[in-house]
Input
Amino acid sequence: MPRLDADPDELRRLIVDEQWSFAAVARRFGVSDRTVGKHARKLGIEPTRTSIRRPELNEGTWLRDQFAAGRSIQEVADELGADYGTITQARRRQGISPKRAPRRTPDMAEVSRRLEAGESMAAIGRALGHHSSVISRAVRRATS
Output
């Protein structure tokens, strides 16, 4: 079974008590959601429906206010323990158009150092304030 460096109590707290998705837990620990699912099932934790309602995403202007304050989708997702796609879908449902911030490129020296240290793209992205896809795209561009 793939390695997950998480205390079983912490895993149970995140998934059961705080209702984090397997994908959100996976991002936090830099593993796949399948790995989280295997470890969770081993602890007797079954996945919950992915459509758990989050009042922040379905009511009022909370989400609109977050984006108006300049927060990124990933920052909002991390705060809620939600998946990037969940926040994107909620933004679209509420008709919030994406404001394109100036493109920030990750510090490639730092990315290289972290890759050599064995960190995952997801872990590097979290540490540097980028989505993992931004990190992998920058690495592809740098190596091509």
